[in-house]
Design brief:
The chain is built from twelve helices and twelve strands. By secondary structure, it is an alpha/beta fold. The strands form two sheets. The chain has an eight-stranded mixed sheet with strand order 6-7-8-3-9-10-12-11, sandwiched between helices. A four-stranded antiparallel sheet has the order 2-1-4-5, with helices on one face. The protein is globular. The two termini are 29 Å apart.
Length: 323
């Protein structure tokens, strides 16, 4: 097995709200092997962004980590003091957020923001930092990179801003890049360009990517492994081939049936999954998907399923798998 650059073990996270505790993540396990792209997939409210934020310990102030570990190159980031954590961000792990409009500081030039990121490179002169920044901009497809260093974010399109955000995230050559729905705010053409860019950068930098998305087409195109998250728990994980050709959990099957690209015949309405993601103020007693599952067994409502290993690369948490 390839050593994992990110290893999440039994992670549980609550958010303290006026309504009570929201059980956002419960006993989540995830691996990102070195040099691979892992897709994290699920509906809105499944906990994808919470898991991505926990990997960098960027959770909101009302979050409480109840247990588990988040290993980054063998170091548990949940146990690091703030100074060590700040040194780790950007050098070991970086994140690209979903909205390029808000990812950059509007009152600073791109060059200023990219040189500020290199503040730990104390032996480099400012001119050298600008050269590195310009070279990274060129790598992500920004023309006239040296001149564009003196431009402000509003002078770029949304797609160019997302390219700049990716360049900034990769500037210190991190071992892991977390891309939290980086194409959500972009149109289809720019979306394809960003996915192509991520694939090329992964090959060039030999890094690892955790790609958070609800777009199954992008996940199939970009990723090596897929983790299906639902209502704060992992319901299935496997290679792209496992998930797209041999799904075993009813939720995974339902997601695939809702993918417009997989619908063979023209129809007036797109398929949907009946019902909603459960309210996580109360963790369901049994299987989290049972209220929406067309294949639910009587015990699904009362007994949580355990995760079963189907093959060395494929696992699912479902009573039907064990039946």
């Amino acid at each position: 097995m390839t050593p994992s650059v990110l290893s999440v073990r039994d992670l549980s996270v609550d958010f303290i709200t006026p309504r009570g505790r929201i059980h956002a993540l419960r006993q989540v396990n995830l691996e990102v092997p070195r040099g691979s792209v892992v897709g994290l997939v699920g509906e809105s409210g499944s906990g994808k962004s919470t898991l991505a934020a926990a990997a960098m310990r960027l959770l909101a102030g009302n979050a409480e980590i109840l247990g588990g570990t988040v290993g980054l190159d063998g170091t548990d980031v949940l146990q690091l003091p703030e100074a060590a954590l700040a040194a780790l961000r950007g050098t070991k792990v970086s994140m690209v957020f979903q909205d390029p409009m808000n990812a950059l500081n509007p009152v600073l030039t791109i060059g200023r923001q990219m040189t500020d990121i290199q503040h730990r490179e104390r032996t480099l002169a400012l001119a050298d930092k600008r050269r590195r920044a310009a070279e990274m901009l060129r790598r992500v497809g920004i023309a006239d990179a040296i001149q564009r260093l003196d431009a402000y974010p509003h002078e770029f399109s949304g797609g160019m801003r997302q390219r700049i955000a990716i360049a900034m995230a990769l500037l210190c050559n991190p071992a892991l890049l977390i891309a939290d729905e980086p194409t959500t705010a972009l149109d289809v053409t720019l979306e394809a360009q960003i996915v192509h860019l991520l694939r090329e950068l992964k090959r060039e930098f030999q890094g690892s990517i955790l790609f958070v998305s609800h777009n199954l087409g992008l996940v199939a195109e970009l990723c090596d492994h897929v983790v299906i998250l639902y209502a704060g728990t992992v319901v299935e994980s496997g290679t792209v081939f496992d998930i797209f050709h041999h799904p075993r959990h009813p939720y995974t099957e339902a997601l695939l049936q809702c993918d417009p690209a997989r619908i063979a015949k023209t129809r007036t309405e797109l398929p949907t999954i009946p019902g909603d993601v459960p309210d996580l103020l109360r963790a369901p007693e049994g299987c989290v998907f049972a209220p929406r599952c067309p294949k639910a067994l009587p015990r699904c409502a009362t007994t949580p399923p355990i995760s079963a290993t189907l093959t060395p690369t494929h696992g699912a948490a479902c009573h039907l798998v064990l039946a």
